[in-house]
């Protein structure tokens, strides 16, 4: 058998049920690429390329250009030599290969802890990805749910709590800090005991604001009145201010998680080299090559939180597989279903029906 795979791809655009609001503004439509690799024995692997250029990955146009210049038949060598400038492509192609003909190879190399993905699972359709997700999910992972920014969080957590979420993430740095601190106090007062709260600033705080948030969180903790835990503040400062975040991480009790700063594997390695031993948010969809991510995580026992890039079921399965395999410290994964897309059942059929 040769090393050749038939390569097909389709670009997609999907509207979020609800707009995602961060300190960068509103995000309404997810654009990405679904790819299919078929080997000579007919084994199929689906992959997803879901870039977030404002977060440090390639743009959707760069990813499309890359796909368009490839021939209709590609090799494993091509898949494993995609340049680092295209991290979402590295993820999409490599995980597509793993799901198809690389499935046995990667599963024997890296036993999937508790995930109960069946050997012989045949991912003929994305629906089978969704089935597999349910098996990975219910068996080994806790989920964090994303709350809407601002006051809307106060009305949203309860529904999510009833759905079984106990860890919540709330975006900060979106509105004036005085207003957000006030909402924060109400949120803390109303969240049930033993819930966990993550605050994500998306790099949108000033140094003074970051200190104020950390001090406020530390005070809540010191007062001991919190049966709820503030798990961490995520990416308080812009990527360029790494040294300040390093300093903040040693000055406060409240933990800091880097996200934008470690968007790609190269950045992650650089932050580790420069002494970061706090939490690393890993978004597999844009971090780059899964095999190199595995190698890094096995070599350096870093504290990780795995997180979605709001991909569809195809990228989500590959990302959750990595999370189940590489997560430590039992931290909830940021793959809440809060911003799911419209027309979940039919979009794929219409995307691929001309093949
Ligand atoms: O991490 C999570 O809990 C949910 C995912 C999330 O917040 C996110 C999703 C897409 C782009 C950026 C981010 C972010 O963490 O800032
Ligand atoms: Mg984040």
TrEMBL record:
Listed pathway(s): Quinol/quinone metabolism; 1,4-dihydroxy-2-naphthoate biosynthesis; 1,4-dihydroxy-2-naphthoate from chorismate: step 4/7; Cofactor biosynthesis; phylloquinone biosynthesis
Active site residues per record: 171, 283
Record's keyword annotation contains Manganese: no
Recorded catalytic activity of this chain's protein: (1R,6R)-6-hydroxy-2-succinyl-cyclohexa-2,4-diene-1-carboxylate = 2-succinylbenzoate + H2O
UniProt keywords, alphabetically: Lyase, Magnesium, Metal-binding
GO MF entry, a single one: O-succinylbenzoate synthase activity
Domain Mandelate racemase/muconate lactonizing enzyme C-terminal: 150-255
Cofactor(s) required for function per UniProt: a divalent metal cation
Source species, domain of life: Bacteria
Enzyme class name: lyase
GO biological process, one term: phylloquinone biosynthetic process
Enzyme nomenclature, EC number: 4.2.1.113
Binding site for Mg(2+): 200, 234, 259
SMART domains per UniProt: MR_MLE (SM00922)
Purpose: Converts 2-succinyl-6-hydroxy-2,4-cyclohexadiene-1-carboxylate (SHCHC) to 2-succinylbenzoate (OSB).
Stated family: Belongs to the mandelate racemase/muconate lactonizing enzyme family. MenC type 1 subfamily.
Protein name (Swiss-Prot/TrEMBL): o-succinylbenzoate synthase
